[in-house]
Amino acid sequence: MGDILVITEHLKGEFQDITFEMLGKAKELVGASGGQCVAVTFGSMNEKAGELGVADSVISIGGSDNFNPESYAAAVQSVVSAKSPPLIMVGSTSMGMDIANTVSTILDMPNISYCSDISIIGGGFSCTSSMYGGKMNVVTNVDGPAVAMVLAGAFNADAGRASGSPSVEDFSTDLGAGKVRFKQLIEPEASDVDITQSNILIAVGRGIGNKDDIELAEELAELLDADLACSRPLVDAGWMPKAHQVGKSGLKVKPKVYIALGISGAPEHIEGMKSSSTIIAINTDKNAPIFDVAHYGMVEDLFDVVEELVEELE
Amino acid sequence: MKIIVLLKQVPDLVEDLEVDTSGKTLDRSDIKYKLNEFDDHALEEAILLKENGSADKVVAMAVDGDGVDKMLFTAIAKGADKAVKLTGGNPVDSHQLGKVFSNALSSEGYDLVFTGVQSVDDRDGQLGPILASYIDTPCVSVVSGVFVSGGTAVVHKEYSGGMMGEFEVDLPAVLGIQAAKQPPRYAPVSKIRQVQQTLTIEEASMGNLGSGGGSSVVNMVPPAKGAGAKMMDDVEDLIDILKETGVL
Fold first, then answer.
1. How far apart are CA B57 and CA B80, in angstroms?
2. Whole-prediction pTM value?
């Protein structure tokens, strides 16, 4: 077995949690196989290599601090070609998606999406992908070098967080053809409510059915002194503002109580709310993955439950 | 300015999914399919660009299969100018899909290619960046806003926490669309029927499938149920829990 390459991810000068989640897992895997855990940083993040103490060494690509799908992928491709690692771990994230697919396709390596677990088997790896909205676990074994796209939240970030002084290798490389140019970072629109600070959240999902019925959830939120949150489909449908979205492309929340109404629990949503102290889920589908992370569940139509609850509370 | 939108059907997750006897794939005998929701957004974004004058032609393209004709007629009813169906093979993963679309694109011509950012079954990676690598164009994934002028597009790429990166991209390019600027429109059944009666779907041979994603499934199982949720029977139980947790 050789070294495992972890492609770090940063935003506004901070390593993202996914970086530490992958480092912790990579360290565990090389601990068993005898290789090294090597972190790849971009831009000036080499200056923060001390935060990557779990890595045995760091490869610093340099270049811009701002992610660029073209140049970051081109740089990772050069590192992979030069180092020939058996496994490259990339986040199953917005940035990781551009890097992992491009590098693996151009270098003709297998790429495994949505990895929720990775283990060593023989001379290769076994990857478990959480697919079909979290309803199926699919195991893929790979013998040769491969790219694994790691789901955020799949591994413990604390296992990958340690200060230290890994050696840093400067790796200068071609940064692509310049066909994609970073212009600016756009901050989220200011909102009247910050759901990351809420004590109690009532979160509505696709099960709500139509826009007008959100009122019912609002009524309940008011009675429980809770704030209203939602899953991504409601934002895409224009029913709820983005500032209320929980999950991968939305916000990460950890209220005391999270009440999920008509949310099936796709991995992208669970990523944003699984740290809530108490999770209560109401869904008509008894097989909905939300019931695996919820502490309390009810297989019922959310309208029946909420209407009755509102009546009782009034 | 021509936009090709790649459409794909995926299992409808509202239905129960079961594993077939091989233990490696879904039992497809009873599966209900629907258009990948992100592909629906990709189509909507393309039609919006046509409506605001940024694009003059939108082509919907898909691989042949059950229900695909209806999906393509629906795309035309929504506003696509024509539909192309690729026939003569059965691509099994994102890499083979990328390969057959790259074959078809070389004869169709394009300025932009839109795909949904991901799908619930793309185990070997996402179609957008895979296809872009095959046809050697730039690609940006997780895009929720496209603005076109001249030979470039300005796109908004979503990060976590509501942050976005703005990029300028030289055309031709592939974009993995997360969300259109407005929710995907519906096409009335009457309009779809009218399209079905008056227009035809072009067919093209999908050509060489390529070697695929280079990995195969060992097994597929529903996730092991952990301790799971403690189930409540009625609203009274729920009220008790709300009291216990201090909500009430």
1. 8
2. 0.93
